[in-house]
Amino acid sequence: MSIFVIxxxxxxxxxxxxxxxxxxxxxxxxxxxSPMKKMFRVGVLSQQGGFSLIELLIVxxxxxxxxxxxxxxxxxxxxxxxxxxxxxxIEMLMAGCDAFRLDTGKYPSSQEGLEALVTNSGSDKWKGPxxxxxxxxxxxxxxxxxxxxxxxxxxxxxxxxADGQQGGEGEDADIGSxx
Length: 179
Known about the structure:
Number of strands: 6
Mean pLDDT: 79
CATH superfamily of the largest domain: Glycoprotein, Type 4 Pilin
Distance between the termini: 73 Å
Shape: elongated
Radius of gyration: 37 Å
CATH architecture of the largest domain: 2-Layer Sandwich
Number of helices: 2
Helix content: 25-40%
CATH topology of the largest domain: Glycoprotein, Type 4 Pilin
Strand order of the largest sheet: 1-2-3
Oligomer: single chain
Order of helices and strands: HEEEHEEE
Strand content: 5-15%
Structural class: alpha+beta
């Protein structure tokens, strides 16, 4: 029964000419204050005040099941994202090596390594740094491998993947500038 029906019945019986309905939050009683400032009870609201423990547990179980289905798919994408980041960083390092070569006439030696892109090793032609944010590590926090001369090209830049060791499959696979 709605509050309006209750108030209408109170008005029809002469209890209420013009009044104000008030809800008291700590009780389930709706009271009406009449113009004569007398308060009387009009009706009782529903006694149900929230969710039961069983309802909350069911919701938590459903959320847990959904998380167990979605979680592994998201972690698989994390590994692929790290591999794409490594490929992008290797391309950036290759561009830095190309700029180094344009200025000095040669790629950095294996002894100089990629560090020659951020610090001058004594060359008068060096106009770097060739990397704006310094020398990055691969997404697995390992240094990139640099070879001059390379096995697959003039120079090779590679990451050994998640395991940090040569070879491997999936996330552990090597990522190189020749790919």
